């Protein structure tokens, strides 16, 4: 009902001023009845105990029904119409591949609870804001693969993001393979803008594709690469070994990020390198990328109108008829 009333528009709203007439009449009736009350003295009030008959208690109802009926007639004169709005969205989306490092160092405790969990949460928020784009997910450690191809279904990609964990890939940091895997998913895209957001916390130390070679491939296919180095400065509680039961052994270790390499990759492809030393900085980085890579959206709004005055007219006439029946029958009120 609330949504219905929000969509009501009046063709002749100036008729609404007529509503003052029945309102003033009702106020006059109320005040005149109050002023005509009389007092008299009796020996006992026993006959009036119980507050009078039900007819006496309902003498106010006919006037209220008449007021309501007249107000609905006024509303019908103003020609209420139901506005039915339709939107057609023409969006020129951007194809974006997220490439996320799953090496064991992503479990470092300089982020709360760790680098990977924070990276997943911030990336998830970024995905939710890009409802007109196609997004996909590539992951890498000692090897790389596509976790989710390009899709407009945000819920599927978010499910994949939430399920990411260290240990599903051979350990290591193959930045070149992670970038190449993401670019491979974009190379056949017909979108005018193709983006890779590559997030890592280490130094390339494995993989059969060199990161600079992967950057050249990205440039060849007009893929812009934004690189993000995740990790605080100095030392951090980091996995250094693993027990036979699979549990990681943590020790303080120096945070090492190949910033020179990441800067070279991003600058050679027209992107930008960022360093995130805490969650707030990482959120600010994704927010800046979101601003830099805006999707072009054109929204066409079409409106249809449906006359609703007959319903207001019928309600008004119904209230006036009910008022007349009460006055002439059960209440037997002459005026």
Write the layout of secondary structure elements.
Blueprint (H helix, E strand, L loop, with lengths): L1 H5 L1 E3 L9 H16 L18 H4 L3 H17 L2 E13 L2 E7 L13 H14 L5 E7 L3 E8 L2 H10 L11 H12 L7 E7 L10 H10 L2 E8 L4 E8 L5 E7 L4 H10 L4 E4 L2 H14 L3 E12 L1 H20 L7
Tell me the number of structural domains: 2
The low-confidence parts are none
Overall geometry = elongated
Largest β sheet strand count, sense and barrel closure: 6 strands, mixed
Q: Quickly name the level 1 CATH class of the largest domain.
A: Alpha Beta
In brief, what are we looking at here?
The protein has 335 residues and is of the alpha/beta class. It has helices at 2-6, 20-35, 54-57, 61-77, 115-128, 154-163, 175-186, 211-220, 259-268, 279-292, 309-328; strands at 8-10, 80-92, 95-101, 134-140, 144-151, 194-200, 223-230, 235-242, 248-254, 273-276, 296-307. The protein folds into 2 domains: 2-33 and 52-85 and 302-328, no CATH class; 94-294, von Willebrand factor, type A domain (Rossmann fold).
């Amino acid at each position: 009902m609330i949504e219905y009333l929000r969509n009501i528009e009046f063709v002749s709203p100036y008729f609404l001023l007529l509503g003052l007439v029945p309102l003033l009449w009702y106020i006059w009736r109320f005040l005149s009845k109050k002023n005509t009350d009389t007092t008299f003295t009796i020996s006992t009030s026993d006959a009036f105990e119980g507050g009078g008959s039900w007819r006496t208690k309902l003498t106010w109802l006919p006037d209220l029904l008449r007021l309501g009926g007249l107000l609905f007639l006024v509303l019908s004169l103003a020609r209420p119409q139901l506005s039915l709005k339709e939107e057609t969205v023409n969006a020129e989306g951007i194809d974006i591949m997220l490439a996320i490092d799953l090496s064991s160092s992503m479990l470092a405790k300089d982020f709360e609870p760790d680098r990977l969990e924070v990276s997943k949460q911030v990336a998830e928020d970024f995905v939710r804001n890009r409802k007109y784009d196609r997004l996909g997910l590539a992951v890498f450690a000692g090897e790389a693969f596509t976790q989710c191809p390009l899709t407009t279904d945000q819920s599927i990609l978010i499910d994949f993001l939430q399920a990411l964990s260290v240990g599903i890939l051979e350990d290591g940091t193959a930045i070149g393979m992670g970038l190449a895997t993401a670019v491979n998913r974009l190379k056949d895209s017909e979108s005018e803008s193709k983006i890779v957001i590559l997030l890592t916390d280490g130094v390339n130390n494995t993989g059969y594709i060199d990161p600079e070679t992967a950057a050249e491939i990205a440039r060849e296919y007009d893929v812009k690469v934004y690189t993000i180095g995740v990790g605080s400065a100095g030392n951090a509680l980091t996995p250094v070994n693993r027990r036979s039961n699979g549990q990681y052994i943590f020790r303080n270790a120096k945070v090492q990020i190949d910033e020179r390499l990441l800067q070279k990759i991003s600058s050679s492809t027209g992107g930008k390198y960022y360093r995130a030393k805490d969650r707030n900085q990482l959120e600010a980085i994704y927010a800046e990328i979101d601003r830099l890579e805006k999707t072009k959206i054109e929204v066409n709004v079409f409106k249809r109108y449906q006359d609703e005055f007959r319903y207001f007219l019928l309600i008004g006439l119904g209230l006036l008829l009910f008022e007349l029946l009460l006055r002439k029958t059960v209440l037997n009120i002459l005026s």
